[in-house]
Amino acid sequence: AYCVVKLVDNNKDSNQITLLSFGGPKFRNRHTLMKYVKLNNYNKWTPFTDNHNNTIIIGRNDNDYEVVRAVIGGSNNHLLFITFQFNNIIALYSIQENKWMLFENTLPSPLFDCVAILSEEDNYIHIIGGRADINTILSTHTKTKLKIKFIIGYWIRTLQIKSGWIDDFNKIIMKYNRMK
């Protein structure tokens, strides 16, 4: 299975959208783009490349993205937030800078087969449903405010100052989680 997200672009044509597809099983990951035109009978996936026509790979070739979920966000819709099965990890990929950040142990529960929605006021994230493991289906609705907002704000500030991710940042976030 693959994850498909709509990229925000400056195209004024309301009949065209750009789609990013990525994912797949280990060692067979594919990353492609499509300029989807509603009125066209032929839409084609093309390799996901940078400005120099180099192929962009999201993650590593040995990552298993078979059940990955993602959403695009950030102040300029330049961040790709990714969740993986059976864990409480959030991966953040900067589309513009082709950089990764990984946050482990930042959420109260694993995020597998769930949906996350940002409130209209941008002050809450609603996490609905999901699975705790392969056999345990959750019927929960978690409304999270400060913790997620703090983490997302931290990601954005880190990207703006273009500093690298260091292990000390993981410790800072872990300490913050324990303080709640």
TrEMBL record:
Q: Which organism is it from?
A: Reticulomyxa filosa
Q: What is this protein called?
A: Uncharacterized protein
Superkingdom to which the source organism belongs? Eukaryota
